[in-house]
Amino acid sequence: MKFFKKTYFGLAWVFILSCFVPFRSYAGSEELPRPAVLLPNIEFWKRIYTEFDSSRTVIHDKLNPLQIYIVLDFSQDEQDESATSLRKRRKAEKHVCHEVKKALKRLAAGQGPCNELDRRILQAFGEPPSRKELEEAARNVRSQRGLRDRFLEGVVRSGAYLPEMKRIFRSYGLPEELCYLPHVESSFNVLARSKCGAAGMWQFMRGTGRRFLKINYLVDERLDPFESTRAAAELLWENYDRLGSWPLAITAYNHGAAGMERALERHGSFEKIIAEYKGKRFRFASRNFYAEFLAAVDVAQQLMDNAGDEPAPEGVMIEKPLLFVTARMPGYAEFTRLATMLDIPPAELQRLNPALRKPVLAGEKYIPAGYALKLPLLSANSLSLALAETGHGRLFMARQKPSRFYRVRPGDTAHLVARKHGISLKKLASTNNLDKRYTIYAGQYLKLPF
Fold first, then answer.
1. Could you tell me if 409 and 437 lie in one domain?
2. For residue 179, what is the DSSP state?
3. Are 249 and 380 in a shared domain?
4. How many angstroms separate the most distant Cα atoms in the chain?
């Protein structure tokens, strides 16, 4: 690792070809086990990743996922991504699930197959099912949308990040295969956000993320692919240290370490947890999380091994590794002005620094001093020269741009505050992380966006 260091105006700039992570003497990586109880589930997820694209929905048994009753085809509607179209699709999926449940109950009551759906359901069992099996199956009907196209998009994107991610995980003494977990979480979309508030490639919730990352009005490191990877390495190691195995540690990434600890105390092993645990929150997603991960590892590695420097089997190219240098900001600087001074397109600078939030990108606030700014890969000398030519006084500020605040008075509503200050309600809510009802209370300080 080479470090290039230049000092301007009494402040140090350090450039590195990749982010340095000190080696920590963690537990040696073990082979990720594949319990026999999970093999059908792994095979199911492989089929979801490779056979069925997002225009198809698989209706199946949630305890025996390879027991597939019917595959719905919505390819005629795939061009229409409107909310109305999505609602119609959800309604159709729900209706077919209901019809399959009715058919299973009817067959369990002793009625013979009376239509094509009945015959297809019986066919899914292979051997003639017993009444008890049919009754149980009627309680476990589930729908799963195909992920073939989305998974392939994730494989394409992952090429930009995996080399550095694997290096980070190696530095922590963790299995490199853990780097494929974002296929399950976000399809390697660094800007992914969930309805429940998780964000980034690793889908950290705000509370968990703040244990490892900087999350504030200006910076959200959950969106930085490499900072969030370090955080994921820390969290996964914590889970492993607490639970003692990778199947439990990885499942805890979805279900929570405390929940898995309770399940382990009750059942004694991962295999028994999968087969017997009936926790209220331990549903299909948690029960299948480790199997889904193992399937993702298999499919992604096969696609990338077959791709090489040629187009992937689907006719697309895996993205090249993201190359950059990192510079520690010696002061505050306006985003667009810095990009102009360094002759970097703002869109490129934004792509390399997804953790910077809208107030910084829009010029309402400066890039914070001390922020590790990623820049396109240039020689250290060229970059140093460009920085020197800008002049510290013209580019960097000693203080952050001030924020405007308003103290909420009795009787105020978010609507009134926004109207009074000539700003949009949506922007006020976003700036202050207000809930969907725009709840505020007397005495609260609201940050007013510029």
1. yes
2. G
3. no
4. 87
**Within a domain: residue 23?**
no
Q: Reply yes or no on whether the pLDDT at 426 is more than 80.
A: yes
**What would the mean pLDDT of 226-238 be, rounded to a whole number?**
97
Give the whole-angstrom CA distance, residue 224 versus residue 5: 24
Summarize pLDDT for 136-178 with one digit per residue, the tens.
Answer: 999 999 999 999 999 999 999 999 999 999 999 999 999 999 9
Cα–Cα dist 448/408, whole Å: 12
Indicate whether 198 and 105 sit together in one domain.
no
Residue the block writes with tokens 């260091």: 5
> What's the domain range around 428?
404-448
3-state DSSP call for residue 13? strand
pLDDT at 393: 54
Asked if residue 25 belongs to a domain, the reply is: no
Indicate whether 71 and 97 sit together in one domain. Answer: yes
CA gap 396, 386 in Å, rounded: 14
State yes or no: pLDDT of 350 exceeds 70: yes
If you average pLDDT over residues 177-203, what whole number do you get? 96
Long-range contacts of 159-164, Cβ-Cβ distance < 8 Å, separation of 24 or more: 159/304, 159/318, 159/319, 159/320, 159/321, 160/319, 160/320, 160/321, 160/322, 161/188, 161/201, 161/225, 161/226, 161/229, 161/321, 161/322, 162/321, 163/321, 164/18, 164/19, 164/226, 164/229, 164/321, 164/322
Q: Are residues 113 and 259 in the same domain?
A: no
Average pLDDT of the chain?
A: 86
> Does the pLDDT value for residue 21 go beyond 60?
no
Least confident of 82-86, 291-295, 323-327, 342-346: 82-86
Tell me: pLDDT of 28 over 60.
no
Could you say which DSSP state residue 232 is in? H
Instruction: Give me 79's structure tokens.
Output: 């061009």
Question: Looking at residue 92, what is its pLDDT?
Answer: 95
Helical (H) or strand (E) element with 324: strand 324-328
Q: How far apart are CA 28 and CA 25, in angstroms?
A: 8
The reply to whether 335 and 439 lie within a common domain is no
Cα dihedral 388→389→394→395 (10° resolution): -60
Q: Letter for the amino acid at 306?
A: N
Task: For residues 427 and 369, state if they share a domain.
Answer: no
CA atoms within 13 A on the CB side of 327: 27
Instruction: Give the pLDDT band of residue 237 (cuts 50, 70, 90).
Output: very high
Count of CB atoms within 10 A of residue 311's CB? Answer: 11
Burial label, 37 (beta-carbon count in 10 A; 0-12, 13-18, 19+):
middle
Same domain, 368 and 288: no
